[in-house]
Amino acid sequence: MAKTNDRYLVIMDPLDEELCALRRAIEILGHKPVTLHLVTFVFDPVCSTGVLKDSEAKTLKKKLLDDAEKVLQETADHMDFRELSYKVDAAWAKRPHKWINDRHEKKPYEAVFKRIAHDRRRSFERGDRHLIRDCAMPVVYVKKRKWPPRGTMIACIDLEHTRGEYRKVNQRVLEEAKFMADLIEGSVQCVYAYPVSTVLMELDIVSKDEYEINAKRKYLPKLESLVKSTAPGVTEFSCNVLPGQAEKEIPRLADKVKANMVILARHQRPGVIQGFIGSTAEKMLDNINCDILVI
Question: How far is the C-alpha of 174 from the C-alpha of 170, rounded, in Å?
Fold first, then answer.
């Protein structure tokens, strides 16, 4: 994730009094000579209603932007950025996700850091959903939670698609999980959730235990082989196959092992932003009580 001279965007949420996103970015990247671009978004619909004169609207807009940038600069001045360089900006944007993509096209970022609410019931707001579906770069969603030392990174692997571009996606997930685990001398747990038919169980065609044993025999060796062949650099890992829906089972596993971060892929098909990230995966993300890296 970190390379020399890379740029990373940190979205500074005015409601994030503990600066969760910024602190996590420094924790992850602080040992690298990279640049953090701290941005806070400002928008007042009054400026676009036509009620104000153009000069009045411009004056109001400038005042709001100047005040926001001043506060952001004062905040940054009190932070220890270690080896990082940084710049601050206040941006006028009604739809921040569009501003982010426009800036990324002009001068790419490696990733975006953004805080999400600790309260699961309101974890993902409308803007977050736009960002997670449309953002052209990886997004690190940060929760208000300290990383325990020697913790666990969960890598969500797709066993349904393992060739070509799909293989590259799985490789990227594994590489990012290893990078994060190495930061805290932690471990990587590779996970695949396989489908279970309730109708199959209700008809008593096969017992639940038998089905899960057969599924484990099929999927676990496949998962272990894929990890070893796709990302040979990932040596400290364990594999787990889970019966059921990913949006339910992966959050349960994350809680059980007290995971530091869940790493998952946005792209399932080349050029199409869908697949793992969609309505089903958004439900899963709402239920995860740790940081999330969406690639």
Answer: 6
Nearest CA among 15, 264, 20, 258 for reference residue 142: 20
Q: Residue 218: which residues within 8 A CB-CB, separation 6 or more?
A: none
Domain positions in the chain are 1-144, 148-295
In terms of Cα–Cα distance, which of 173, 178, 151, 146 is closest to 161? 173
Homologous superfamily in CATH for domain 148-295: HUPs (3.40.50.620)
For residue range 81-124, list pLDDT tens digits in order. 998 999 999 999 999 989 999 999 999 999 999 998 655 444 45
Residue 8, strand partner residues = 36, 111
Nearest to 227 by CA among 175, 151, 271: 175
| Domain 1-144 grouped into CATH 3.30.479.10 | no
- Cβ-contact 5, 34 below 8 angstroms: yes
What are the angstrom distances between the C-alpha of 24 and each of 73, 81, 202, 217?
A: 18, 11, 46, 39
Smallest Cα–Cα separation from 181: which of 233, 222, 143? 233
Sequence-distant (≥ 6) Cβ neighbours of residue 233 within 8 angstroms: 175, 178
Q: In what order do the strands lie in the sheet with 139-142?
A: 85-92, 35-42, 7-11, 111-115, 139-142, 291-294, 261-264, 152-156, 187-194, 237-243
Q: What is the value of pTM for the model shown?
A: 0.87
The mean predicted confidence, pLDDT, of the chain is 85
Q: State how far the Cα of 201 lies from the Cα of 243, in Å rounded to an integer.
A: 13
Q: How far apart are CA 70 and CA 160, in angstroms?
A: 50
The torsion angles phi and psi of 242, rounded to 5 degrees, stand at -120, 130
